[in-house]
What does this fold into?
Amino acid sequence: MKVLQIVGDSKIGGATYLILKWCEFLIERGCEVHVLSTDRETIAELNKIPGVTVIDSIYIPRDIAPAADLRALARLSRFMSEQRYEVVHTHTSTPGFIGRAAAFLTGTPIRLHSAHGWPVSEFSSFAERLLYAPLENLAARMSSRVICVSHAARNQGCRFKLAPANKIVVVSNGIDPSPFITSGSASGEKLRGELGLPPECLLIGSTGRLAPQKAAETLIRSIPHLRTLLMDKPFVVLLAGDGPERADLESLSASLGADDCVRFLGFRRDVPELLSALDIFVTTSLWEGLSISLLEAMAAARPIVATEIEPNAELIEHKVTGLLVPVRSPEDTARAIARFAFDSELTRRCAGAARRRVLEQFTAERMFREQWNLYEELRREVGSYVQRSPFRLPFSRSRKLKFEV
It folds into this structure.
């Protein structure tokens, strides 16, 4: 099976690591795997995987840029016509649209898209909904299937008419939990020492891109409330990640007089060790597909404070596997953090239940098995003309296609 994965210029993150592991899974099953990426860090990671062919000569912007998008569509269509892929699997919004359009135009038999997060949510403006929803729906109609990474994402896609219901399948995100289980207290103590933080200091932290959807300002704005609620207990907030919001978040921290208890760590590769050092994990996202960082914190058996958005609630049951709080509520976030800080029994119970939930339902092994089964199912559906060669455009009179649009 010859497969092209398209990530475009998307930056490395939780979803990217899943794609890397998925490529390894495909290669182990004898597939010829090509990956289109122009992000330097992603390419460096791809080059570590024996057998992967990296395509870095076609630039697809992460955001809409009409001229660049049209050039990318033309070049990608020519490239696909030459390569004759059996499967094209896209990731992220703009590369997802261009990749599926090119695959449809060149008659690629199987066209898949993983919706790690939709471009439209409850927090989108009217203009964004007006622009993105029709484009996403059109791309879905050019797809064999759209893979949603959570049931919540499926519901969102149907609610905003981002894809026909019969095109959507759910393959929930999963992770390899082993690094987060084996990274024990010794790793956490070592990291604390490197950061110059004493054992009695309460470490509150978050991992993830510093982008608008993550709403990290909510955690920073909770600090004045935490100072009151935690009384004399020393604490530090660690933000591990980078992104376009970093400068604004640093300015906000300074304006609140919180510089002494906020550390911006930047992009980190030692996430298992970082999580083992934390006392409480916090995610204040406004929207998600299904958060990889949240799954990692669950595997690390951290007590978790998460916003009550539907994807988070798919993982976190309030007072069972963590505490759920309203979005954009620094006061509620601070109260939940303080509750964990002073209730060791609740902390122990939620942390253990969170890890068990990941091990039972949200492993990468389960995710990849379900995704592979989908590949095989679609191969059987189109098997009668997968073998035809060379590919021709779907409007060619010499070839009758049954692709559903």
About this structure: The first strand starts at residue 2 and ends at 8. The two ends are 24 Å apart (CA to CA). The first helix runs from residue 14 to 28. Confidence is low (pLDDT under 50) at residues 384-405.
